[in-house]
Write a structure and sequence with these properties.
The protein is built from 8 helices and 7 strands. By secondary structure, the protein is of the alpha+beta class. The protein has a 7-stranded mixed beta sheet, sandwiched between helices. The model has no long low-confidence stretch (mean pLDDT about 95). Bound molecules: coenzyme A.
Length: about 190
Amino acid sequence: MGCKYTYVNFTDLNNEELLLVFNWRNNYEVRRWMYSTDLVELDNHFNFVERLKTDKSKLYFLVKRNNLPVGTFSLTAIEDDEAEWGYYIAPDYHHKNIGVEFYYYVLEYIYLNLKMKTLKGYALTANKSANSFSDLFSFSKVISEFKSSENSDDEYFFRELTENVWREKVIKNKKIERLLELTVNSII
Ligand SMILES: CC(C)(COP(=O)(O)OP(=O)(O)OC[C@H]1O[C@@H](n2cnc3c(N)ncnc32)[C@H](O)[C@@H]1OP(=O)(O)O)[C@@H](O)C(=O)NCCC(=O)NCCS
């Protein structure tokens, strides 16, 4: 069977898929880790996707595993070949062990298809799962002064991965290869 990841730009989603993403975004398990934890209104969601059609600084994708929608990822603040990334797995598929696959194939798509060279990200230090995956995938890690200053209660790690480090440390990484083999035939 194997597992195949595909990506659909938010601007190409049908109404059913737009609603699916809307519900994921408003699920507490997803929004609790975002910069804005507020609920999004449906109108705003549709307007946001409409604006993406002309905004060259942002890309949002629905991620499918064997044709099943399992999450999203985004590139924002895109400047040349650098961007900030964000991602989530759909609430139904948290703790189903697809995180390694999700990270692996999304990063491959970002570097090989979207031709990025430097990926930056911020994760709340309390977000153990996200930081554990970023560690496994060799992202650098420092406490972010910039993000912490916006809300004194929140502490973020600033994390970065260049294409070169990705090629050296992720592609053909034996541990990651072994983990990918564990889920390649899983039905989720
Ligand atoms: C962050 C997120 C992608 C993690 O996915 P998940 O499936 O919920 O991850 P889990 O908590 O089950 O897995 C995390 C742990 O299991 C391990 N794990 C997961 N899949 C595995 C696999 N196939 N093989 C071995 N270990 C695995 C991870 O290495 C990690 O280890 P740890 O115990 O040392 O922390 C997901 O929870 C999510 O989308 N959250 C909401 C949004 C979000 O936080 N986005 C990131 C913002 S920075």
